[in-house]
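Researcher: Go.
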Amino acid sequence: MQEVYEFLKKVGTYYLATVEEDQPRVRPFGTIDLFEDHLYIQTGRSKKVADQLKDNPRIEICAFDGAKWLRVSAQAVLDNRLEPQQHMLEAYPALKAMYTPGDGNTEVYYLKNAVATFSSFTEAPRTVRF
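Model: Structure:
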C-alpha cells in the first residue's frame, strides 16, 4: 500500500473511473492520503462522482509517471468520520478554501479489497493487494 501511495503522490494527477448506470466515467483526481492503514481519496458530496460511488462503489485508478503505469481496482468505502477528513485536508491545504471537515460536502473514501498492478514496457507486471 505504501508503494501505491508514493506512486500516486509522485504523479500528482491520476484518473479515477466510476460507472454511471451502464456508462464508464473517468476524471482526473489529485488527492491521495494514507491514514490508519488505509489509502483514501477525497471528493465533494455535491459532485456527480459522489453519486456514482454511492450507486456503485467499484472503481479503478490509473496513473502514469512517464515510464511505469499503475492500475488499481478497489471498492471505495465512504468514511464519514471527521478524523480522516481532517487528515486529508491537512495533506492538501489548498482544498481548505472549498472543504471543511464535517461540512456535509467533504467526503473521503478508503480503498478496500484493492488490487494494484505496476506495469511498464520493460518489466513484467507486478501486483500487490491491500
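Model: The two ends are 6 Å apart (CA to CA).
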